[in-house]
């Protein structure tokens, strides 16, 4: 079988979703750690220092390209899979089992993912496009901490971010475990570990992200 | 056990043939013994329909003891009805309450077209099986059983996978109409045994290719198949299928 056939087969597509998903999961750890620096409450000094480091280190910048490729692959493949899978049942059931046979969030990865995509577009618009543009065009560096304070001063933004982060949490709870299943790891020896780490990871990451807009909006951090 | 009779209202999918668009029709099923199986309840109803000169409801069945996998019915939103680990023929009417309305639909999947009423064409499964679900055994005398040592755990796992009866409930229950549980059971059954080794790589590649060709969806690991499978085949078989598929592709 050619590699093209492999990666366009139903199992190959799952594998693409799993590997890009795990890559994004690793990215979120880095992202949450750096942004978590704002909780040091030192007027964003530590945070801005690392933000500067990460936007100027060339290894990180190459990885950033990889991140976008992974993200786009994950989103496009995910959307295509959702639509393709829907077309495999042209006549729907009149009665559905609801949550009796599966978890709602495991059935809703397409919707949760779409919410995340919308969130991400606005999120990049808030913190990425402007920062990068000025960095590369005028060479002037934004004070990201001050920018966060301004963006999160608006209530609708905080609400919007909360919805995004909560969607992320459910997406991760299914996605984490699912990625290992797709790679082929499902055995009593590892399942407990994957389950626990997956849930702990999702909750910790999402709690950290949730607290950032909330804390800045309520002025808990100056 | 106490014997009671109940009256039920049935909402059954009727469809003349594959071209017909089909619709639900309502029937009263009166004086149904709670000891009857779900199929026997349909027999009683069909008897009445025949006596009244109406077209009986077509449904698939054969063994009526949970081993042939023919009795495909989606009952109140559940493949083979509300009981776990049972086929429709093993579902008894005591699972329902007097006066209850029961909705009965055929399996819904593009790869399982409805032939008439509740019967669907599951020959897509046969074609997946034919693509690689066999071992090449040259004829001749059977060799001594002990000549082939097999690890007990592997033999058990293979046996558990081989319990799949090809009923299609996994496809019916899956929101993506994926046949991954069925295919994974058939692949696992051989991949775990020494007899399955000669065709190990071609088997998995060909069976998955056939599965995709038949128009089944892709797995998203919701686990609904495992919850509805009458033989309680585990989705750890799907993980094995993914592994087999990857290592078959990686092999030189
Ligand atoms: S895996 Fe289970 S549900 Fe699927 S065909 Fe086999 S026995 Fe039926
Ligand atoms: S009729 Fe054979 S399994 Fe139900």
State the CATH superfamily name of the largest domain in chain B.
Alpha-helical ferredoxin
Helical fraction of chain B equals 25-40%
Intertermini distance of chain B: 62 Å
Instruction: Please report the number of helical segments of chain A.
Output: 9
Total domains of chain B? 2
Bound molecules: iron/sulfur cluster, FE2/S2 (inorganic) cluster
Strand order of the largest sheet of chain B: 2-1-5-3-4
CATH class of the largest domain in chain B: Mainly Alpha
- What assembly state would you assign to the polypeptide chains in this entry? heterodimer
The secondary structure category of chain B is: alpha+beta
Q: Please state the second-level CATH architecture of the largest domain in chain B.
A: Orthogonal Bundle
What does this molecule look like?
The complex is a heterodimer of chains A (222) and B (252). With 222 residues, chain A is mostly helical. Chain A has a single domain, classed as Fumarate reductase/succinate dehydrogenase, transmembrane subunit (3 helical TM bundles of succinate and fumarate reductases). Chain A is 79% helix and 0% strand. Chain A is built from nine helices and no strands. Chain A has helices at residues 3-8, 10-36, 45-56, 58-87, 104-107, 109-137, 144-151, 155-183, 188-217. By secondary structure, chain B is an alpha+beta fold. Chain B has two domains: 5-115, Beta-grasp domain (Ubiquitin-like (UB roll)); 122-140 and 148-250, Fumarate Reductase Iron-sulfur Protein, Chain B, domain 2 (Orthogonal Bundle). Chain B is 33% helix and 14% strand. Chain B is built from eight helices and seven strands, in the order ββαβββββααααααα. Chain B has helices at residues 38-51, 123-130, 152-162, 169-173, 180-191, 200-213, 224-228, 236-250, and strands spanning 5-14, 23-33, 74-75, 78-79, 101-105, 114-116, 119-120. In chain B, the strands form two sheets. Chain B has a five-stranded mixed β-sheet with strand order 2-1-5-3-4. In chain B, strand 1 and strand 2 form a beta hairpin. In chain B, helix 3 packs antiparallel against helix 5 and helix 5 (180-191) packs across helix 8 (236-250). Chain B is elongated. Chain B starts with a strand and ends with a helix. Bound molecules: iron/sulfur cluster and FE2/S2 (inorganic) cluster (FES).
